[in-house]
Amino acid sequence: MRLAAIGSGGAAPGQRSPRVAARFAAFLPDHKARIGLVFIAPALAFLIVFVAYPVIDVVRLSFHLVDFATDQEKFVGLANFAHVLRDAKLGTVAWNTLVWTVFSLAGQFALGLTAALCINQRLPGMTLIRTVLLLPYVVPVIALALFWRWMLDGSFGIVSAALQAAGTIAPDQSPLAIPEGAMASVILANIWRGFPFVMISYWAALQAIPHEFYEAASVDGAGAWQEFRYVTLPHLVAITKVMLVLRLIWTVTFFDIIWLITRGGPGGATEHWPIWIYQETMGFFRFGSGAALAVLLAGTLMLLSAVYLLATRRSAAR
Amino acid sequence: MMNPHTRRAARTLAWASLAGIAALSTPRAASAVELTFWTNLTTASQANVIQKQINECAPQQQGLTVKFETVPFGAMYTRLITALRGGEAPNIMNTIEGAVAFMQAKNGLEPVTDLVDRLGAKDFTASYLHAVSKDGQVWGLPDWALHQEVWYRKDLFAKAGLKLPRSWDELLQAAKALTVAGADGKPAQFGFAVPMGRALVAPQTYFQIFYSAGGTIFDPKTGEYMFGEQKPLAEKALAYMIDLYKAASPPASIEWSWSEYRTAFVKGQVAMTNEWGAVVQMAAEQNPDLLSQFDVFPFPGPSAEKKPAASLGGGYYYLIGKSTPEKVAASKTLLQCLYNPKRVAERANSRPIFAIPATNSAFESEVFQSNDTVKRFKPQLEVIFKEVMPTWYRYGMEAGLNPLAGQIEATSFIGDAIQNAALGKIKVDAAIDQMDEQLRFQVEMLTR
């Protein structure tokens, strides 16, 4: 009944003034749109409270000096941004974030695609193999981190023992105690953790390629590589574009795995942007500086994503 | 059927009963007090003892209920911030001195000076009261001591014909002598574990050495910042730490935390380590045969002629959050009951050797001294209680409460400088400059 009243533009007594109802009707003249608005209202309210408000508050905080205990805030303009941009570790952290992101993405996409091509074969036991390959993605990060720390332990770890036996590292040494080794270790752990998502997405895309395309290519005399190059790859472009943006955002902002394995060490060698945000906020309790770092990261990611999507659209249009 | 007189009498009686019940219940409701009680001690053996003691003490106050909660150390500052913002800070909290400084700096604490006086100030080990004193008040009740000294293997010392080191140089020589190669030429045993985990552990190792030489971040008497003025001493301590690491510690110990170096000691991989006494319980569970070979000595100072100036220590405290006068009074009465020497000893015994009572009465009590582990390690406890516990500092709290301690623990700027110097990425003087610069900056921010 209420929907009908709204739909007809009439005002139920005591519920809505005719002026407000008329404005509402003018704003959304379509009856279906108004009903739709009512249906999405709960989701909209959820988004406003749990997504929009926190984001807006972080932006607001980045311009304030906050005393968390007394809740007193002082507007400081761009001082928080100036503070973090003048910090001596800005260059190191930015470089670490870049290395972490680029190598993690490259590894996840390469391994994910290879695994997808393998599980796309119709061989006995493939269902089991697919399930096993998905395991790293469903294992809790804390278990994964402890497992990697144990394997990389300088005294008892199997990976460290192998590296020591090969003479790559000194006896009783651990890759986690060497800056380059620590970064390589956390990247490997992240590749291991993230490749199943890429694999399953690519596998779904591979399943959607019509078999006739391969038959036609075969009739035209294409070999395995040419089939992959001219049939498979073009069909994976769309999913790659979407996944690249998603994985970029997830990888840059992924905090847990580095924190649990190296805590950003040794000597800051694996400290990336999210760890810096955490230390500013929960270590020094400088909420304004932490918020400024978060805003800078979000801004950079949005810019990168926009440039990437624009570039891919232009190349598609050509 | 009742006659009208009886009915009237019954009605009067009913009203009188209701009025009586109301009269009785009103003052009881007014005196009902609920306290929130947090502890960082999440292991069952420790938390259960505190819970049991609360259950014994709370009924002594009419109308008192206590809501007990264990809050892991890792989540403590986040919880405290949320609680402070919401005006729901705990009435009583059991935590380390860094959190006492944090709460006091945020005006979230009631002083407990009167309670200390009631319990007898002289009963407390003076260094533990000093650490939580500020502006002429005491802000936390010392419960048990965290203490750091050198734990070593008597059998390995005897086998190598070594005496107990009394100076940095003697310690380095002993550590070198105890670093032994196996048949394959690779180290089979290391002399001294020098753990340098980025957060917490590296500063703890470094300041143990720095304090032994008489250095401090703040002047203990005036409270003036003085780390920068002591650069030569600070550099000497860091250079020594790195020498010890390179000469006698496993290379991977640059990123070791507590579990790694304790495991190494308990498994026999290292002969000595700076430790808080947790290796006793660990060895009892994993390698009990080795327990009889454990012994301790204070980390020596630079010279054999002079005793170490101090060590890096700490402690667990009970603090009272700002609240209504009724809740503050109820909290103090509850704590007074918890500070019966037997109960203090019982709490320390929930993790023997690692936890040592911070009061003389509890240390000497039958409950503490009759504990099997305490009896077994009586000589070691005497050394710790008499030689280590009286002179200790926590980084940044040399002149009493200072929230800088919490920031050093929650961040990694000191650990980064130490690790980079040990890795050879920067020189020792540059590492000390970095630490000094950051410490000055933090002090300035905290006092702004």
Account of the protein in words:
- The complex is a heterodimer of chains A (318) and B (448).
- Chain A is built from 14 helices and 2 strands; from the N terminus they run H-H-H-E-E-H-H-H-H-H-H-H-H-H-H-H.
- The radius of gyration of chain A is 26 Å and the shape is flat.
- Chain A has a two-stranded antiparallel sheet with strand order 1-2.
- Chain A is an all-alpha fold and 318 residues long.
- Chain A has a domain at 92-269: MetI-like fold, CATH 1.10.3720.
- Chain A is 73% helix and 3% strand.
- Chain B is an alpha/beta fold and 448 residues long.
- Chain B has 2 domains: 33-147 and 313-388, Periplasmic binding protein-like II (D-Maltodextrin-Binding Protein, domain 2), CATH 3.40.190.10; 149-312 and 411-447, Periplasmic binding protein-like II (D-Maltodextrin-Binding Protein, domain 2, 3-Layer(aba) Sandwich).
- In chain B, 50% of the residues lie in helices and 15% in strands.
- Chain B has 21 helices and 16 strands.
- In chain B, strands 1, 2, 3, 4, 7, 14 and 15 form a 7-stranded mixed β-sheet that branches. Chain B has a 5-stranded mixed β-sheet with strand order 9-10-11-8-12. A two-stranded antiparallel sheet of chain B has the order 5-6.
- In chain B, helix 8 packs parallel to helix 10.
- The longest helix of chain B is centred in the first third of the chain and has 28 residues, at 4-31.
- Chain B is globular and about 105 Å long.
- Residues 21-30 of chain B have low confidence and may be disordered.
- Chain A binds chain B through residues 68-71, 153-155, 160, 170-174, 176-177, 179, 182, 262-268, 271, 279, 282-286, and chain B through 77-78, 81, 84-85, 106-108, 186-187, 190, 196-199, 250-255, 260, 264, 269, 407, 410-412, 415-416, 419-420, 423, 425, 442, 445.
